[in-house]
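Maltose/maltodextrin ABC transporter structure dump, as promised
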Amino acid sequence: MNKNKTLWGLVLMISFVLLLAACAPEREGAEEAANDDNGSDESQGNEESGQTDKPEELVVWINDEDIAQDVSAQMFDKYTEETGIEVKFERVALPDQVQELSLAGPTGDGPDLFFQPQDSLGNIVAQGLAMPIEYTDEEKAAFTDVAMDAFTYDGEIYGGSSSD
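structure tokens r here:
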């Protein structure tokens, strides 16, 4: 039973990270490329040709525990293989993440993704440290209503369950 629960937790965590990866903010290097001095607008050309710019790397803060690192490494390796986007995870103790995020986020030095329990959501949103996620109906169906409710604040969804 515990093994089955762990497997489902891993599947849901992978789904969660894949969904959030699409919401990652533009990195400083991509911003400079879009504003280069020769006047060309690469991002517009890519949009017109149907291609979208994607980041070269995503930064993810994980809990500072060996099990979190082990599960995350497997998940991120698979994501990199499927997308070509490197995932760099940094171990930050769960109790310290919100404080560190409040310092690093506004300067652009925060992670693209981070893991926090749902009871931290109100504080994180009130500080402006998280952006809502738009799920399709199909993506929402992968989660229970209880899980989706846990990460909904003022009618907006800010995360997803890594286990059910």
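The CA atoms of residues 34 and 41 lie 6 Å apart.
lmk if u need the other ones
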